[in-house]
TrEMBL record:
The keyword Zinc-finger does not apply. GO terms for molecular function: metal ion binding; oxidoreductase activity. Its cofactor is Zn(2+). This is Zinc-binding dehydrogenase. Residues 30-154 form the Alcohol dehydrogenase-like N-terminal domain. Keywords: Metal-binding, Oxidoreductase, Zinc. It comes from the Bacteria. It holds the Pfam family ADH_zinc_N. The lineage of its organism: Bacteria, Bacillati, Actinomycetota, Actinomycetes, Micrococcales. InterPro entries: ADH-like_C (IPR013149), ADH-like_N (IPR013154), GroES-like_sf (IPR011032), NAD(P)-bd_dom_sf (IPR036291).
Amino acid sequence: MTTWRGRAGVLRAIKEPFSIEEVHLLPLDPHRVAVKTHASPFCSTDVKNWKGKLYKIPPTILGHASIGEVVEVGSAVSGIRVGQRVVVPGTPECGVCYYCGIGEPWQCGELFDLGGIYPDIASGDDGARISCAGCVGGYAEYMSISGNQVFPVESDLDSDVLSMLGCGISTGVGSVFNVAQVQPGESVAIVGAGHLGLWMLQAARLAGAGSVTVVEPHAERLALAGSLGADVLVDPGSTPEEAAEALAAVRAATGGRGADVVLEAAGPAVSQSFAVQASRRGGRTVLTGFEIGGATLPLPQVETALQSRRILSSQNGQVHMKSDLQRYTGLLERGLLDAAPILTRRYPIEELDLARDRSGSLDDVCGVIVFDH
Ligand SMILES: [Zn+2]
Ligand SMILES: [Zn+2]
């Protein structure tokens, strides 16, 4: 049995710099595959993980989406071969749990029944056992992944672009196509223009949205949304009065009613409450963000209980990776989804702290950690 050994950016302690160190994968469980990592997006969620806001337990390797080449296949895994390029999304599809059985693999028990306790997959030179946060651990040269969480992809596109399939693209595009099911001509508002919101914007235009309004306080990101085809740009400001003005602006852009569909990609509870109020009576709001574990969401009662607004949730964009992944890849290949404005920088693993800082300060829309391949 081969020992897979390589560099990793290990979260040894909350809010401490990542430890860039050599680790080796533990002997491969029969149900797992070893993957040599090509690229992993640095998602803004990992800024929160680094700050300890989402219950991740050190020592662990963050990075909840990735792509790479299969280098070893456990004896109990079928359908995966050494040498295949595979997307590793943040969510497995085991096919046999209750949720996979009822056709809702985005809640697959193989991940969510773990209760946030992830398996140890590697060991440091000091003997420390290191887990893979979210069952991926993409900020490492080698990953040990469940055979149910690797999806072969056929494409000539670079791995750095395709690495985003399992994070921003699945959640953003899936929110539009699968969750909201935006119909041609519907008005769409997007709250937040980070990587997720910008994928939503592109998907909403693909779906034939009648108008797209983007609400975003960061001036550069708002301008980027404009260059990607948003019809109306709204700065929500920072005070309750400015937020009320922004809400009025969204309604003014949507016949005075509010949008048919509001897609929230910001995180703070105040943004989610705003999103619901920006939808029309009976409209759909898709919530994707979260700020900190344990947070609650206050909603106005009349608008939600009396006025028929529907609130939907979008874990992993409700995608079926086996059927949706290759279609989304096709959209990237044809240029109907454009990664260029979203993938702002590439980093070697040694610059993981820099990638985190630039994600946190909004200097990057989405940085990608790349490995030699
Ligand atoms: Zn499952
Ligand atoms: Zn993510």
